[in-house]
Specification:
alpha/beta; 14 helices; HTH lacI-type domain-containing protein; six-stranded mixed beta sheet; 12 strands; single chain; 355 residues; six-stranded parallel beta sheet; Rossmann fold; elongated; 434 Repressor (Amino-terminal Domain); DNA-binding transcription factor activity; 3 domains; LacI/GalR-like_sensor
């Protein structure tokens, strides 16, 4: 069925693509690439079948792109994000630095580009790969129903994602941080310090990361039997410092305010610290606050925070992308890599007085 579909498209629309060849031959896109660029890696029977389909469909590989791939260091495409206002986040910068560092160690370099939204990003990724400018791309900050993985898979663009979608994530390679486990660790830390009314400051519902962090707080509170005593202590708002200050003030105005708070980000956590100090409360004694991301601001202000293993994330992504693009491996067609990593809590004065 796949072979007939591929031939029909070729006959109807001119020159065939590498993805159509792969579908018609019943192999992966990388196997077709290996037949063209490194035939010694492919079994004779498979190689002959792919070569036969190439002839039948009239596929003509991009020789310029091929020359760029084999004669120069690999290029990795990555969409750089604009700086958010009222944010102390540095995860994006850490991640980009890690990609560049581990990429260079693997003879790859990062090519950054801009795009107005994810639709334009997918178009740019496809164009960069088809012209041979990049050999693969890295996706960042996937949403539950993100269309980028499906679009790039259909276009035959090798990619690895930092994050994953709500469905179909087993069909592509990704590395993610267990955000739910992170906020659960924060709750456990506060419970161990004697807190029983523990609030949560998070984002509005609808994002993969924000929803996972809220779920971790909820499940941990339930596990400790503390949900009933923390009624109405879950508040949400934009990821800005002013929002964190406002939401923390709302919690402190409750008839039974929390003695501990888990913030979904350090940005919200830093905002919460302002509200605590404006009330004349002693941080770590009168109320404890935990952030998420372990930014330089958290370290400077003594904010306990969850540190994402960004360096490990970047190394895994680069290693997988090298495999998918057929360099340094003979098994580029293996199953996609799916890795979930747990963050670590870094305790500071905001939860441990005297630190």
């Amino acid at each position: 069925m796949a072979r007939e579909s591929g031939r029909a498209r070729s006959a109807a629309g001119g020159s065939a693509t590498i993805l159509q060849v792969a579908e018609a031959a019943g192999v992966s896109r990388q196997t077709v690439s290996n037949v063209i660029n490194a035939p010694h890696r492919v079994r004779q029977e498979t190689r002959e079948r792919v070569e036969r389909v190439i002839g039948e469909l009239g596929y003509h590989p991009n020789r310029v792109a091929r020359w760029l791939r084999v004669s120069s260091p690999g290029m990795i495409g990555y969409r750089i994000r604009p700086v958010a206002e009222e944010s102390v986040a540095s995860i994006h910068d850490r991640f980009l630095h890690t990609l560049a560092e581990f990429g260079e160690a693997s003879d790859h370099h990062v090519l950054v580009f801009t795009a107005s939204d994810t639709e334009e990003e997918a178009d740019r990724c496809t164009a960069l790969c088809r012209t041979g400018t990049v050999s693969g791309v890295v996706l960042y900050d996937l949403t539950p129903y993100d269309t980028r993985p499906d679009r790039l898979t259909a276009a035959g663009v090798p990619f690895v994602a930092f994050g994953r979608t709500a469905a179909g994530a087993d069909r592509y390679s990704w590395v993610d941080v267990d955000n739910s486990a992170g906020t659960a660790i924060a709750v456990d830390h506060l419970v161990a310090a004697g807190h029983r009314r523990i609030g949560f400051i998070g984002w509005p519902e609808g994002s993969s990361v924000g929803d996972a962090r809220a779920r971790g707080w909820l499940e941990a509170m339930d596990r400790h039997g503390l949900l009933a005593g923390s009624h109405r202590l879950d508040v949400r708002g934009p990821d800005t410092m002013s929002s964190g200050t406002r939401l923390m003030s709302e919690l402190l105005d409750r008839p039974s305010p929390p003695t501990g708070v888990v913030a979904a980000t350090d940005t919200l956590g830093v905002g919460a610290l302002h509200a605590v100090r404006d009330r004349g409360l002693l941080l770590g004694r009168d109320i404890a606050v935990v952030g998420f991301d372990d930014t330089p601001a958290a370290s400077a202000l003594g904010l306990t925070s969850l540190r994402q293993p960004i360096e490990e994330v970047g190394q895994l992504i680069i290693t997988e992308l090298v495999r998918l693009t057929g360099r340094d491996t003979e098994d580029a067609a293996a199953a996609p890599m799916n890795r979930l990593l747990e963050p670590d809590l870094v305790a500071r004065a905001s939860t441990v007085p005297g630190r």
